[in-house]
Design goal:
Elements: H1 4-21, H2 27-36, H3 40-49, H4 54-73, H5 76-87, H6 98-115, H7 121-135, H8 140-153
Length: 162
């Protein structure tokens, strides 16, 4: 069982991992997560008790919150711009809007962590694709279905390059 001090330190470690995965350019987004997603701390605590490392918890929490914000907050045009921006390697133009940079930083840093074997590369790939599929306008069920199909058969639609 973790004490309050250890839980507090673990939460700080997860926040530091989130900051790292956003390229140290998403502190406002991280603050907003804890403000607008009241179960975020419970998720962190529950996963900590299961023995998950801070960087995995950070990646998972960011995956869901980024995809949720794409779905809730971006217009169809912005989602299209974001999908194009995420798929471009290197991006052809500047950042279309500030949140797009947060999303791209997440994808880049997650892929880096997968390449360095700090996170499971297959899980990383699925996480990045999940965010990309949200940008493509896919629903939660469509995203999960596409990931399941890819797990068994390989890609069926265009995917982000990195």
């Amino acid at each position: 069982m973790f004490g309050f001090g250890k839980e507090r330190q673990f939460l700080k470690d997860v926040e530091a991992s989130m900051s790292f995965l956003l390229g140290f350019d998403g502190d406002q987004f991280i603050s907003a997560i804890f403000k607008h997603y009241p179960n975020a701390k419970n998720f962190i605590t529950d996963e900590m008790k299961k023995g998950q490392p801070p960087n995995w918890i950070a990646g998972e929490l960011l995956r869901f919150t980024i995809a949720d914000q794409i779905t809730r907050s971006l217009s169809a045009e912005q989602r299209e711009q974001l999908a194009t921006f995420l798929a471009a390697n290197p991006p052809a133009e500047g950042v279309p809007f500030p949140f797009a940079k947060v999303c791209r930083n997440y994808a880049i840093m997650m892929l880096r962590e997968g390449e360095l074997k700090k996170l499971d590369p297959d899980w990383v790939k699925s996480s990045v694709q999940y965010v990309y599929f949200a940008a493509k306008g896919m629903s939660e069920n469509e995203r999960l279905s596409e990931l399941m199909v890819r797990a068994f058969t390989g890609p069926t639609t265009s995917q982000p390059k990195s």
